[in-house]
Amino acid sequence: MAVISQTDFQKGKARRKWMGRAFHGLCLLSVGIALTMLAVLLVYLLIQGTTRINWSFLTSFASRHPDQAGIKAAMFGSIYVVIIAGVVAFTLGVATALYLEEYAARSKFARLAKINIANLAGVPSIVYGILGLEIFVRSLYLGKSVLAGGFTLALLVLPIVIVAASEAIQAVPPSLREGAYALGATRWQVVWRMVIPQAMPGIMTGVILAVSRALGETAPLIAMGALTFVPFTPDSPFSRFTVLPIQIFNWTSRPQEGFQEAAAAGIIVLLVVLLVMNAGAVILRARFQNKWEG
Amino acid sequence: MQDLDPILQARDLSVYYDTKKVVTDVNLDVARNRITSIIGPSGSGKSTLLRCFNRMNDLIPSARVEGQVLFDGLDLYGHNVDPTEIRYLIGMVFQRPNPFPKSIYDNVAFGPRINGFKGDIDELVERSLRRAALWDEVKDRLKTSGLSLSGGQQQRLCIARALAVEPSVILMDEPCSALDPIATLAIEELMHELSEDYSIIIVTHNMQQAARVSHYTAFLMVEEARVGFMVEFGESRKIFTNPEDERTEAYITGRFG
Amino acid sequence: MVRADFDRSLEELQAELVGLGEMVERAIIKSMDALERRDLAVAYEVVAEDDLIDAKRFELEEKCIDLIATQQPLAIDLRTLLAVLQIAVELERMGDYAEGIGKICMIIGDDVPVETPKELPQMADMGLTMLRRSLKSLVERDTDLANAVWDSDDDVDELYDGVCRQIFLDMGQHPKTIEAATHFLWVAHDLERIADRATNIAERVIFLVTGQSGGFGDHRENE
Q1: Count of domains in chain A?
Q2: Could you say which of B185, B189, B212 has the minimum Cβ distance to residue C71?
Q3: I need a surface site. Which of A213, A247, B116, B214 has the fewest CB within 10 A?
Q4: Residue A163, domain member (yes or no)
Q5: Which residues of B touch C78 (CB under 8 A)?
Q6: At A160, which CATH number?
């Protein structure tokens, strides 16, 4: 004898089917909202900004005159700062994650450190700016330079890289480590030849996220004293600088219509730079992506 | 039995995880160029015991080993003994085939490379693959992924990988549990051939396999008061036709507990 | 042990079984020789050598058990090992009959008051032929030959009946020879059983080859 009567089963089945369809619809709606917002933003930017996108916009420095204002200094500033931030965050982040996962694994210290690092990811970015100002600009006498800016952003995105790298390292199958150890590999050889290559795609995903975040940050750099008006490209790590978001922020706060257009064009440039840098990271990741899988 | 020529000797060997004893006072002689199987119910410490022989337990932070393991008279747990060096001399094959995500060639070459092998590595790779009875199947695709092989081939690749560092002992931790009967038979044939030159210890939950392939069998058991103690050790034909201990008899006849 | 080794072990086992058959064959020949020539020394040898046959049988049995325990034989391998076990028992029993004849020789002693019935060596020859052919059918897995062995048991039975009748007749006519005649009756009986055991071997061969046992006819009435 069936536990559920036939009519109950039919009723229940209809209801469950309806629930399934409703949930499917809800998910689709969410995707629609997200895509629509993005499309509106892009269309708005393109309409406002395309008129200003040209060679001279990219090769000119900031100006008091809206039609002469260019993005060159901010673009180069952003690229330099983000590259420094990316490289520093990658190196420190991977090393930290390796220590926590491979060397100090399961120790109380490692567990405590990991919880705190995860929490750091939630600290407001302006706090990092103040930290950067104190440590890099003042204590280490780096000044309000590209290097100090890069380091500050590196601190900001470090938790992202550490968390991503930790997860990627954890995801390396223990059987591979055991296999390598069983052949007489030292811990260093296991880490260097087995764990890092295997974890690299996951680590690179973290780096991509980190770079995207760093590129869009304004507050910490303003807090540490990046300029808003820079009529030159940084020529050394110790040059003063500005970055795209600051420049855009600056333009949007001006009343003239021309600066609004420049801001829109600046955002487009920012998006393109973001896209290019991410594409670079994706290509790097693909190179590491194991061609031997399956 | 008395004239067994031992290559490995466990002496009053106990293993703890934190404070829990999982292997209790095992005394076991492993015969040179013979196959010794370790059988017993789940949780009887078979794998843990096996991992004492190449100090793989060192990788588990909470594990602690007491007693001695003599390898040709040398105590593996003595001072100044480098576990990586032991693992170079005593190879291991695992329960699930675990080829590295590298080419077949690089899988076999991995061990020699990390141990600073200087010589004809092509020749070594070929020799190892031949010894593992895999060469003919893979010689035309050495550059393809080790993961593209079938389960049985992967396990033979792992055996070739272990052979490439030329160990004198090979530990096998349920090497056929993830394989089908045909692949299992191929591994058993291989083990039998290898036993001419290597001493092999195999942990298996498959008593028939222990009976088929091994010359000697050790039976481990778990009781409420004691975990992972050895009940009986002897020639396999003796253990499987006329064991001395009634607990062995009960286990191998399926009348356990 | 791997399959190739297992196959070799099975072959060796069979060769040893055939070897046991040859030992039994020699024992029968010698016992009949002792009987005809009233040779006590040879008779004694037959009795003593039966221990070797027994020992060989137990050796074979142990090997079978080891192989069954360690190799988990199935199908043809299982039938082969079972057949070897059973045939070894049959051969050992045949050896016992030869021993029995040897003992009778020793009881009869070396004087010749009565002629040995000429049918007895004839029966022995037939039994020996059956033994040889049954073992040949084993080695060659030849069921036709095994069936032929079976059929020839009727001839031995016929001869046996004839000998018995003749001996009873003689007993009635010459009461003084009753004791000696009884001994010959025993020899005839032993020889008849030897032939029966040969048919049993043939039966095990058929089982080994075809997997069928029993129900081939009514040759087992003596068991």
Answers
A1: 2
A2: B212
A3: B116
A4: yes
A5: none
A6: 1.10.3720.10
| Domains along chain C with CATH numbers | 3-210 (1.20.58.220)
**Neighbors of chain B by Cβ distance (3+ pairs < 8 Å):** A, C
pLDDT value for A54: 82
Question: B-chain residues within 8 Å CB-CB of C66?
Answer: 237, 241
Q: Which of residues 12-51 of C touch B (CB under 8 A)?
A: none
10-residue mean pLDDT profile of chain A (294 residues): values are 79 89 95 94 87 82 80 88 93 93 84 88 89 89 88 93 93 93 93 91 88 87 80 82 87 85 88 86 78 56
Beta carbons of A193 and B114 less than 8 Å apart: yes
The structural domains of chain B, ordered by start, are 6-252 (3.40.50.300)
Tell me if A5 is assigned to some domain.
Answer: no
- Shortest CA gap B56–chain A (Å): 7
Q: What is the pTM of this model?
A: 0.80
Residues in chain B: 257
Structural domain contains residue A161: yes
Do A and C touch, 3+ Cβ pairs within 8 Å? The answer is no
Residue B212 to residue C69, Cβ atoms within 8 A: no
Conformation bin of residue B16: beta by default, left when phi > 0, alpha when psi is -120 to 50: beta
- Write out the residue range of the structural domain in which residue A30 sits: 15-52
Against chain A, the chains showing at least 3 CB pairs within 8 Å are: B
> Both tokens of residue B169?
């002992």
Lookup result for tokens 């800016």: A149
Radius of gyration (C-alpha) of chain C in whole angstroms: 19
Give the separation between CA B239 and CA B218, rounded to whole angstroms.
9
- Which tokens go with C219? 């040759």
pLDDT digits (tens, 9 = 90+) for A150-188: 999 999 999 999 999 999 999 999 999 999 999 999 999
**Confidence class of residue C113 from pLDDT cuts 50, 70 and 90?**
low
ipTM computed for the complex: 0.92
Residue C220: its pLDDT value, please? 45
CB spacing of B85 vs A175 below 8 angstroms: no
Share of chain B above pLDDT 70, in %: 99
The answer to whether residue B135 scores a pLDDT higher than 50 is yes
A22 with A95, same domain: the answer is: no
Q: Which residue of C has its CA nearest to B195?
A: C1
User: Could B61 and A105 be called an inter-chain contact, meaning their C-beta atoms sit closer than 8 Å?
Assistant: yes
Question: What local confidence, expressed as pLDDT, does residue C216 receive?
Answer: 55
B near C: at least 3 beta-carbon pairs less than 8 Å apart: yes
Per DSSP, the three-state class of B74 is: strand
Q: Where are the alpha helices (DSSP H) in chain A?
A: 6-49, 55-59, 72-98, 108-120, 125-132, 146-170, 174-182, 187-190, 196-216, 219-224, 244-252, 257-288
